[in-house]
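Here is one chain, start to finish.
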Amino acid sequence: MLQNEPPAARLVAQVRGRGRPGDRTATTSARSGSLRCGILGVTGTHSEAPPEGEFCALRLRVANPDPAFHTFVAARQRLAGVEPPRDAPSGFAMAVRRQHDQVELGGQNVLEVELWYDVPKGAPVSGVRLSGDSDPEGFQSDQTVAHAPDGVLVPLTPAR
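Its structure:
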């Protein structure tokens, strides 16, 4: 858990990718997470560093409701309101915090991840664009899940 995590920073979202193609808000269901920005440094077991701008840390619960394995890719989770490439997780901060770039999630499993972003100071973060995979929908299915290439926007205001 992030230290001093304010309850007001909680968000509710899980992106499963089901819905009509092109529907950018399709099928969100309740899970928990939090976003904090204005963090002045990152500390891990063997390193610490200041950001180029400021760090934002997102804690997100990822659920796999399918019986098959699915891969969660950190780099696909983008902050809204921040220009590329700074909208993607910071590889350096993620390494300091010992967070994987991607995780294979077993069937019916839930995982909590920390995503660290190095954004310009005072960046107008307005949410997160969450993206899942585009694997077949379920066991023995050949139907591909409707996929939003830019992710599904979950609006939120970060705690600072």
